[in-house]
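Quarterly update, task 2.4: zinc ion-bound model.
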Amino acid sequence: MNIVLLGPPGSGKGTQAKMIAEKFNVKHISTGDILREHVRNGTELGKEAKKYMDAGQLVPDSILIGIIRDRLSKPDVAGGYMLDGYPRTIPQAEALDKILPELKQKIDVVLNIDVPDEELVRRLSGRRMCKCGRSYHILFNPPKVPGKCDVCGGELYQRDDDKEEAILNRLKVYKQQTQPLIDYYTKAGLIANINGAGEINQIFDEISKVLSKFK
Ligand code: ADP
Ligand code: ADP
Ligand code: ZN
């Protein structure tokens, strides 16, 4: 089963993706995590991407299309995968539609997670991340030991782009460049709408019900 997770920044894609990956045994492919790893390792790609990321802007399509083509060509995706944070623009979706048949793959479902803007700002401003890709929230989803990841014990940090100015920019960018994908995938008959405003576990139950149809 191959899944695309669509939703604004802060809608809970990363949080749900970790739970989905475990239950449904699919690889979690987060382009944000891949880019942050490049930034941490100081690669050329990382240096280029950081300028855009810190400002809350999208990294150019050509870079992302290259990343996703490489990632989907690796043998470990054969058992199924979930794309979190890709595609984020119409050209990225069109590129994916070209890459998939070349790799003899297809997308089964696009989960569209919907959350009101005020809630997104509350979530992003209290988010804390671990290098392993897990995210926490100082109030809504705190770690067991303050400042430490429950799963790997890593030190939690606040992302540079989870500061107010970058947050507002990312929400604007989402509306302009990513929201049109809802229409794109509705026309393709792939969208499943998920109300992302409730409790983490309740949202996961709703997603599980949808996904169990595709297993
Ligand atoms: P969030 O979880 O807040 O939605 P991500 O971790 O997915 O954010 O992405 C962080 C940043 O990385 C984005 O704001 C953007 O700068 C960059 N990025 C990630 N995925 C893409 C993509 N598909 N296209 C362009 N930029 C991307
Ligand atoms: P995304 O990957 O879509 O940007 P995250 O999964 O990182 O979103 O979640 C954003 C923030 O909101 C994190 O701090 C996370 O702990 C918190 N969060 C996720 N889901 C919920 C929820 N259902 N209710 C409240 N807070 C949530
Ligand atoms: Zn961790």
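Highlight for this quarter: DSSP finds nine helices and seven strands in the chain.
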